[in-house]
Design a protein that fits this description.
Blueprint: H1 2-5, H2 9-23, H3 25-46, E1 50-59, H4 66-69, H5 78-89, H6 92-101, H7 116-127, E2 128-132, E3 144-151, H8 156-255, H9 263-267, H10 292-305, H11 314-325, H12 330-336, H13 349-359, E4 371-375, H14 388-444
Antiparallel strand pairs: 1-3, 1-4, 2-3
């Protein structure tokens, strides 16, 4: 007792507990065996093995996307393409469409008492996962992993590989659709520019024709006015001439000039005739009446019979010529008779080149690689769940704990029962002792 008192109270209790457990080691061992047996039965007969397959995707080299990027309409880097495919893999809509388009692959996911929607929800929630690599921790590791958990009897390899191909093809088709819309919109924009150029050309041509015709009309009107004024002038000149002739005829008659003469000849008319030739030089115009009555009357009669004075002035013929030329504007006729007016459009060469380039882009979307499949899913030989060793180990630990608790409780229960029996025996002995003392006292009395 003196030696035990020197040991701490905690150590004494621990030794005491160990002693209790050791004395009841059969109960502890039995509890461990029962727990291990239940764990073995549960793992091998009730739990269904779950396998996992993984597919790893990495960015493609830049040359795979060169044709798309050189189009100038769409820009896509390798990293962006990888993220697009990862987003498609993680898309609820993409998974649902793949689930509905491949019902044969998901027969095993459906239970007898549930709809296909519930089967898809369970598949989407529990089976398929998409993981992105942490580029902050590892700059060289830029990848996307798609993992599928499936039970035995399910073709998980085909499901994951086909789903990855489906996601890549879906994203490729999305880019193709985007490019189709972009090209169509760009072509519509260029066609609008070309149409605007045609409208501008047509408007300019009509404006030019109208200007030319207006100039011709103005020129014709001016020539007509000039011709009318010139004819009026000629007519007035003829009338004035006739009046001059009439006046000269009167003077010639009064002077007795019947035939043309000159002032000198008129002065020598009274002199006898001789064979003399005269030459008269003066710097003054000879009056008209010296032409004589006969000549003047003949001229006046001719002027009176004249119906048109146009031939008397060469300008009239010139105006008639110009009016005839203005009847047909050859430049207007050429403008109106153009067959292919697109050849005369201005500032549309770049538009036509761009339209021709867009029509002949020649991007083969079927051969565009969005991502590089670094590792395709292959069949897993070992299940990832359940972890039988861990389950059995936990069961053994639980059995051990339960056995220890049962052993301790049983020990204290037995101890309490023993104490109760001891107290009862002690009480019985005391009662007997009191009874013996009473009997002795009565005998004495």
């Amino acid at each position: 007792m003196s030696r035990i008192s020197q040991v701490s109270h905690g150590e004494v209790d621990l030794l005491y507990v160990v002693k209790i457990i050791w004395t009841q080691k059969k109960i502890v061992l039995l509890s461990v065996l029962i727990a291990a047996l239940f764990a073995l039965v549960y793992c091998f007969f009730f739990l269904v093995p779950v396998y996992q397959v993984t597919s790893v995707l990495r960015p493609v080299p830049m040359n795979e996307l060169d044709a798309l990027n050189r189009s100038g309409l769409y820009s896509l880097s390798s990293e962006k393409a990888l993220k697009k495919v990862a987003s498609t893999l993680d898309s609820y809509d993409t998974r649902l469409r793949f689930f509905k388009e491949n019902p044969a692959l998901f027969k095993s996911f459906e239970k007898n008492d549930e709809s296909s929607e519930l089967a898809f929800e369970r598949f989407n929630r529990d089976s398929l996962k998409v993981l992105l690599s942490d580029t902050k921790k590892d700059a060289l590791s830029n990848s996307v992993s798609a993992a599928l958990d499936y039970k035995q009897g399910v073709d998980g390899v085909s499901i994951l590989n086909k789903f990855v191909d489906y996601a890549i093809e879906t994203e490729r088709e999305a880019i193709k659709a985007d490019m189709t819309v972009i090209v169509r919109n760009r072509m519509a924009e260029l066609a609008a520019q070309l149409s605007a150029a045609r409208v501008a050309y047509s408007s300019g041509k009509e404006s030019l024709i109208a200007g030319l015709l207006e100039q011709d009309g103005l020129k014709q009107a001016q020539l007509q006015d000039e011709l009318k004024a010139l004819r009026q002038q000629l007519k007035l000149n003829r009338i004035a001439r006739m009046q001059q002739l009439a006046e000269a005829i009167g003077i010639a008659r009064s002077l007795g000039i019947q035939r043309p003469t000159t002032p000198s000849m008129l002065g020598d008319a009274a002199r006898p005739a001789n064979n003399v030739f005269r030459t008269e030089v003066n710097n003054q115009a000879v009056p008209l009446y010296f032409m004589g009555v006969d000549a003047l009357e003949a001229e006046r009669a001719a002027l009176a019979k004249r119906a048109n004075d146009d031939f008397t002035d060469g300008r009239v013929a010139q105006i008639a010529k110009e009016l005839q030329l203005l009847q047909h504007n050859r430049q207007v006729q050429l403008l109106q008779n153009r067959q292919n007016e697109d050849l005369f459009l201005q500032n549309v060469d770049d538009v036509r080149k761009e339209m021709d380039r867009l029509k002949n882009l020649g991007i083969d979307f079927d051969n565009i690689k969005m991502v590089q499949i670094d590792r395709r899913a292959i069949e897993s030989l070992q299940p990832v769940r359940p972890m039988r060793a861990i389950i059995i180990l936990v069961a053994v630990l639980v059995g051990l704990l339960v056995g220890v608790v049962v052993a301790i409780l049983r020990h204290y229960a037995l101890q309490q029962a023993s104490l109760a029996v001891g107290r009862q025996v002690e009480q019985t002995e005391r009662a007997l002792e009191r009874r013996t003392k009473g009997d002795a006292l009565r005998e004495t009395l």
